Every structure is written in structure tokens, then in C-alpha cells.
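Practice problem. Given the sequence and the SMILES for magnesium ion, write out the predicted structure.
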Amino acid sequence: MVHNETSGEEQLAKDIEVGRLLFAGQCDFIAAANNMRALPPVTLPEICFAGRSNVGKSSLINALTGRRMLARTSQTPGRTRQLIFFNLARRLQLVDLPGYGYASAPKTDIKAWTNLTRRYLAGRPSLQRVFLLIDSRRGIGPADRDIMNLLDETAVSWAVVMTKADKQKAENLSMICNETAAKISKHVAAFPELFVTSSESGVGIETLRAHLARFCLPKENFAAT
Ligand SMILES: Nc1nc2c(ncn2[C@@H]2O[C@H](COP(=O)(O)OP(=O)(O)OP(=O)(O)O)[C@@H](O)[C@H]2O)c(=O)[nH]1
Ligand SMILES: [Mg+2]
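Answer key:
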């Protein structure tokens, strides 16, 4: 029993190290696209971060890559207005998406971003998984449900990342995570596990790195299956 637990921990530590090494690699800005023709060519496996405005998408990319200023963040919602592509260690493409649910931008702008994001999500052949960010203080809202349904319809695999865990009390956090997990279990294209993170405190970042490494490195690199 004790032996198994130890080896489980060792396996996890090995996977975390694989993730750490990948994310310690160079990460370069590739492209900012505000229309479908401006998307960079399909080359590497790609994962993207989607979610409401201000949920913490750009901050999460910075936390994962350990670079404070790689993706531009802001206290004002609506900071990221294009699809921003980053190349990680020439192995994985990371995409920072514009947020949805931001009411104070001009309506035509909102429509253009929403259309572009939807077209990208539904039609990008290299897209391995969408990471849908949910604020730990708010849980799933109506705009999130629209995206979840779109992803289910287009059969794009997606997973939920809870953000800003540092801003929520432990008991509320576990309650909101249980509620969220129950809701996503009804969606066919959803990965059942939640990733609970804080870009501020670093909670959950190494686990998410280890998970992301699986989209671009061969299976033999990992201990745990
Ligand atoms: N306390 C705390 N604040 C966070 C965390 N992640 C992001 N923030 C803050 O939340 C605000 C929005 O973060 P962004 O990363 O710009 O959010 P975004 O989802 O990229 O927003 P848009 O580009 O507008 O869609 C900023 O003020 C961040 O500092 C976190 O884990 N903890
Ligand atoms: Mg952003």
C-alpha cells in the first residue's frame, strides 16, 4: 500500500518534471489574427484558452510559461482582441483567445470577435483541446454554456480550468468545483477532470503544464498513464 502510494507520487513528480522542462523552453509570439485568413498555417499541435473577458486567460499563459509579460493582461475586460499565437519550444502552439461577455465594446467589434472565435474553435484542424476558463468565484454562466454547446456540436475536445483560486475560500472553492464538475459531466466532449489554478499563487500550474505536455510529446516521456 505504502509502496504504491510512493510510486504514484514518483510518477506524478516525473510527469511534472516533463511539463516543467517543456515550459522552460523558448516561447515566441507567432501571430495576432483578426480574421480567418490571418491565422498562421497549421503545423504543430495546438491548444487554446477560451473564456469570459477578464477570467485570466492571458495571465494563465504567462504563469504557464513563467514570463510575466508574454501575453498582455489588463484589469479592464476586453484586453485581448485578436487570436494571439505563441510557439512553445517548437513543439506546441498556445492560443490566447479574445474573451466573451464583454459588454462595453462597440457592438460591431463584439460581433466580429465572436464570429472569428467561433469559426476558429469549430474549424481548426490542429486544435487538440480547448481549455475553457471559469472564474472560481463565479462558476459557469450563460455565455460559457453557449461555448460548451458549440464545442459539443463541433466535437472539439474541451476541459475546464478554474482560475483565480487564490481569491476564493477553500470551502467555497470545493463547493463550486463540485458543482462545475457535475455540470460538465453532462457534456459529451468534455474532459471530466477540472484543473484548479491560480496564476497569482501558482496553484495548479505545474499539474496543468504536465497535462499540456501530453499533447506534443510522445507517450514514452510520461510515467503515469
Ligand atoms: N488574484 C488573481 N488575479 C488574477 C488571476 N489571473 C488573472 N488575474 C487578474 O485578472 C485580470 C484579468 O486578467 P487577464 O489575464 O488579462 O484576463 P483575460 O481573460 O485575458 O481577459 P481578456 O483579454 O479581456 O479576455 C488582471 O487584473 C489579472 O491580474 C489569478 O489567478 N488571481
Ligand atoms: Mg487576455
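Check your answer against the key. The pocket of guanosine-5'-triphosphate (ligand 1) is lined by residues 51, 53-59, 73-75, 77-80, 98-99, 163-164, 166-167, 198-200 (CB under 6 Å).
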